[in-house]
Structures are given as structure tokens and as C-alpha cells.
Amino acid sequence: MPPLSSGESSPREHISAIKTMNRKSNWVLNPSDFAFLWEECRRCFYLKVVTNFPRPRTPMPGIFRLIDSQMREFYAGKQTSGAMPFLPPGTIETSESRVQSAPISVPGHSSTCTIKGKLDTLVRFNDNTYGIVDFKTASPRSEHKTFYSRQLHGYAAALEKAAPENLSLSPVTKLGLVVFEPSAFLASHAHSASLTGKVNWIEIPRDDSKFLAFLKEVLNTLELPKPPASSPTCQWCQYRDTSRITKF
Predict the structure, then answer these.
(1) Burial class of residue 247 in the structure, from the number of CB atoms within 10 Å of its CB (0-12 exposed, 13-18 middle, 19+ buried)
(2) Cα–Cα distance, 242 to 202 (Å, whole number)
């Protein structure tokens, strides 16, 4: 085996780290990982949470960041009656909010979990209830409800069961996605153009029992004494394994 570079942990140190981390009584979970990371590879999820060994960061393409920022700027401060008529009367707030729950107990587990992350858009309804909205640029698909339901429920739990000195709002009565689906490119003259398309609302029904069952599955994984098997389709795990075999 080639020598370790400066600052690189040895396999023995990684094993020791896993044993130490598995004695933790509280896991810190980011709702953004409840969608694709959990779905793509439980091993990568485990390594990120238990050993603080995340995948390399893959930045969002600039065009999607730009569309997202423009959508949030457009909706900021508007009333739902004009901008989002599919929601009850209220005011849209698109400034990013950091949220963190107090430790959440899950039946059948001695360990707990804290949900900590950053939500994009909050709606303050006139009846003193709240909604959580996430903006997406994509073609609406049925699996969006499954992927993003866990994420939005995580934000709701963090708001309703907030840790001291964190943003605390309750009850959260609406969850959903505002999905922009570009379909046409329009140019008024040589130096000006725009994308147009449908804006779709995908409502996520509130189902706390289903979300609690999901958290139970997450803790079942995190409390394992070693990382679970990688997903057969996980390219990150395939790359790691190949690099070890080839000793590159």
C-alpha cells in the first residue's frame, strides 16, 4: 500500500472514528440529505453523518442558481393571493433561514437526532400558521413527492420543535414545491432573451407518522457498527473502491 499523504487518516483511524462516533447519543441530520443522498447510497449517508466523511462537493450549475435566486427575488414579500393563489392568504418570505431542532426522540432507539439546515422560503399565513416552500427548476415528476417530502418534513420538525435560541414557528400547515418548467426560449432582439414555461405547484401532504418511520430507518442505519453496503449504482463508492484496488 502506498504511504499516506500528510493529514490523511489511516484505515485504523477510520475504524476507531466509527467506533467513537457510534457511541454518540445524538445525530445531527441535514434535511437536504433526506432526498437524493439517502436515496442514492446509504453507505455515503452513513459516512457523512457518522464519520464526517462526505462526498466531494458538486456545486449546482450556475444557471440553476441564477434561476433560483431570480424566483426568490420575484416572490419576496408578495401576497399569496396574487403570487401563489394555490396557498391560503399570507406573505411570502424568501430570505434563507437557518433552523435547528431540539433532539428528537424516536421510539425504539436510545439515541436521538437533531435536524439542522437552511430553508429557502417561508410563508406566514394570515391565520398565524405557516408554510414551507422550496423552488425547483425541473419537469415535475411523481417521485418529487417522495424525495422532497422527507426534506420539507425535516424543516417543519425543526421549526415546530426548535432548539433554544433558534427560529421557532408552529404550526406548519402547508408543505410544497414551486416547480418552474422551462419550455421556450424567446428573443425580442439580438441582445435580449428570456426563458418561459409553466410554474407548477406540487403539494406535499403532511404525514408526521410517515416521517417518524423514516427517521427510525435512518437511526437503524446510523447505529450500525460499520458502514452498510454501498448502492450498486453509487458512482462515488465505485470510484473509491476502484482507487483502492488499483492503488492510484
Answers:
(1) exposed
(2) 40
Cα-only R_g, the chain: 21
Question: What confidence tens digit (pLDDT) does each residue in 34-55 have?
Answer: 988 999 999 999 999 999 999 9
Is the separation of the CB atoms in 90 and 75 below 8 Å?
no
| DSSP H or E stretch at residue 37 | helix 36-40
Distance CA 46, CA 224 (A): 9
With contact defined as beta carbons under 8 Å apart, do 130 and 170 qualify? yes
User: Per-domain residue ranges for the chain?
Assistant: 11-246
Query: What is the reported pTM?
Result: 0.87
What is the number of other CB atoms lying within 10 angstroms of the CB of residue 184?
A: 8
- SS3 label, residue 240: helix
pLDDT tens for each residue of 56-86: 987 777 888 889 999 999 999 999 999 999 9
Report the topology of domain 11-246.
Answer: Lambda Exonuclease; Chain A (3.90.320)
